[in-house]
Amino acid sequence: MRSRLLLPLLCAAGFSSAAFSATEMLDQVVAVVDDDVVMASELRERMAAVNQNIANQGAEAPPEDVLIRETLDRLILENIQMQMGQRFGVRISDAQLNQAMGRIAAQNGLTQEQFAILLEQEGRSYTEIRENIEREMVIQRVQQGNVNQLIEISDQEIENYLSTEEGQKLVQPEYRIIHALLPISSDTSDAEIEKSRAFCEGLVQRIRDGEAFDQVMASVPETYPFTGGDLGWRKLDDLPSLFQEVAPTINRGETADVFQSPSGLHIVTMADQRGGGDMTINQTKVRHILLKPSEILTDEQARELAVELKARVAAGEDFGELAREYSEDIGSAAEGGDLGWTSPGQMVPEFENMMASTEIDTVSEPVRSQFGWHILEVLDRREKDVTEDMRKAQVREFLHGRKYQEELDAWLRKIRDEAFVDIK
């Protein structure tokens, strides 16, 4: 049903400035939204937060009736999504919520306990903040679950984007350079320049020997007026031209030789870098047999069966045939336990550790994971160049993000139009 949006005089419903400040005002319904309602108390609380944000930003607030209408509409839209979350069974675990609260506290340089105390000192409720974060997380999951399925990125789109100048720049490596410049004036003698160069080379050596860049530069006497600092993450084309030749020649953690420009003598350290270049990963071709403990097979019995199957393979029986008969991994049993080529991080840690320590053409000892008991056979190992795969994945993620907001806006309009909304 298309929404029925009524816009009566909000003041008649008790939303004048005076009404907002009247603590004795009774709570009441301000909007019916499908199977739920928005209460006056919710609107008052959100209005207070919106006005506080506007004041903190030093911005000019819109007319009050406009602000009330916009705030109420946001609450209605959130309410629709929360109802969808309830129908879809979206739940945020305590662990996930604690992690989110921990990140917020860490961003403020605090522990969760310190963050809670600070909020209470400011007259704000930690519990309410926690509930608001949970609400935001539920809404975000509802949005992602509905919008992501609307977005399709074809291989051709990726290829087309990679062929553009913008696409080529996207997949360029990024560098984080820390830089120090010792200015040299035009009338500085050659002898003084060489003395300064020798001093700079001594600093470079200290950095190469393991001292932190900041610590080394902090020890420099005032007679050497260095300037510079952290340039942050930058693509090669975004670096000052002076560094575009230097950056590709040094690896993460390395410091370039001292070099001179018209501005002076430079010390450059590659603090970090990401993307670009050739990327290879070690892959393992493996097959396995999974035995799951159950009501009729205890954990110890499952382990003993794994030991028995390993012995049968050693005696000459075919691993693949045993996997077809005994393995409870539905995805691989019919293929003789073959998992194909696996990449780092693809398997659970216990499986990966055993796989890494098992020789080619060898069956491992039984290993326990969260899924049950495994024996595995390593068939081969190789290095695989994933440079192109990583480049395409980077472009796919970028194009997805660019489409996401557009699709989200359209989806929000759609669910708003389809909801029953009666503003009192």
TrEMBL record:
* Top EC category: isomerase
Q: Which GO terms describe its molecular function?
A: peptidyl-prolyl cis-trans isomerase activity
Q: List the Gene3D superfamilies hit by this protein, alphabetically.
A: 3.10.50.40, Porin chaperone SurA, peptide-binding domain
The reply to whether Phosphoprotein figures as a keyword in the UniProt entry is: no
Q: Which UniProt keywords apply?
A: Chaperone, Isomerase, Periplasm, Repeat, Rotamase, Signal
Q: What does this protein do?
A: Chaperone involved in the correct folding and assembly of outer membrane proteins. Recognizes specific patterns of aromatic residues and the orientation of their side chains, which are found more frequently in integral outer membrane proteins. May act in both early periplasmic and late outer membrane-associated steps of protein maturation.
Q: Which PANTHER family is this protein grouped with?
A: CHAPERONE SURA
Name this protein carries in UniProt: Chaperone SurA
Origin organism of this chain? Answer: Congregibacter brevis
